[in-house]
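name: query_chain
kind: protein
chains: 1
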Amino acid sequence: MAFWTKCLLILAIQVTTCFTWSAAAPLSKNFAASFNKENILIDSRRPIAGNGDTASTFFLIQNLIELGFKGTVNILVDEKSERILRTISSNLQGLESQVRLIREAELPAKEYSVVIRTGMPSGRILADGLHLTTAESPAQAGKLNINDKTVFLSTPIYGNTKNTASIQPLSLLNQGNKFYLLPAPGLDANSNEAGIFRDPFSLSIRNWSLDKAEKFLLEQTKTTQPDLHSLLNAVIQDRKSGNTRYALAYGFSIPQVKVQARDYFRSLLNSSSPLIVLTPSAFSESLLASFSEEERSKISLTNLKEFSESGNKLPPGHLTVVQVPNVPHQIFSTLLLASNRNHVVPLGAGDGFFTTALSLGIPFAPTTVDWNIRNVRALGGVLQNEGVKQGFDLARLQSLRSVYSIDPGIPVQLQQSQKLMMYDNLFKNAHNRIPDFSELFVLSVGYLRQTNTPPPGLKVLENIQHAYIGTPSQDIISCERVF
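structure:
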């Protein structure tokens, strides 16, 4: 472990003092266009962090297209990652012509020049199916064919800190027998993290009115999700008559955030109008266990079919939580925006949620667990700094500090979630304060492919072999060459 610690310290100095990514946009566009000639494969098998690690594949491809990439990306999927990708990318115009989902058995007999692995702790590349082509052993169908010029880039999920003794939270860049460490996605500048992916769709709708968002929701669900369409139509009509508000909540299923979920829902009670919370997250009656009897009388838990059958005549101050199916990304993002336009702060968790909410520029309350607390606090710090620039004193920022657990040792306080609406302008500007990780990716991989030398400022790691081993549930703690 001492060797890795030494390498991390060297990299921190190298990247901080020698390499500047802030002026990268024009150069990254040139490299993105040059990728049109490359055979690119993204390995999205074995997702272990919910939808977020698979969503990072989805955002990276969109970001490449935004930068000028016009080629085709192959995504190596298994059953779970294919299901997630097909759900979130449904009806996203312009993507289907540049993306091909393939299973390992369907891999063609061609070499890949760039292989990317997103969303895995320790920047692990899965060795399954890898085949090093040589004159004696040409490319084979059903194998992930590579050569000694193939560039690998593997990145962890945002701010992943499950095992701080491993190489994370850094990314690993590899070509042949040369290995380099570079910053990973994340929000913590103090840990040398390099920003987040961008969400092009959410950026494109961030200025929509509520009426425009609702029109889009009804159009998108009319034929593909008729039950959800029926519910939304009823809720929207009631909202227009001034009787109901609605919002989206996501990511409160796991036991670690049970108390936070309770506090968030408490922040929604006693509204002047009925409030309907839509969620794709699974829940049961146990969600109500820690509420008082009076609070439970104001909360209903239901699902899409039962709510549609019972109608939507609810008393003022009543909270109804409705479980809905997983929805395509466009609908998810628009529901988040509609929450804000309904003057409700939504609840969310995970890398994909962070990317989308920050691209929309809306206040949101994050659930916090051991492996994302550093990320949450880092974002809280970005927002607090923006508040200070806009003339807020620390007293006026107290609710922000409480929800984002900025003060170590003080637990997150989601009962103050709805007070985040007063910081609307801070969230609106936050995405401009956070680097775009896609530009780091394009520059580092593109530079290495075109020059066979590392980007300036990244130190070559000598005398190591790449960490290709380990199971999906553990971090890599030793190294083994695949070549």
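note: The longest helix spans residues 2-18.
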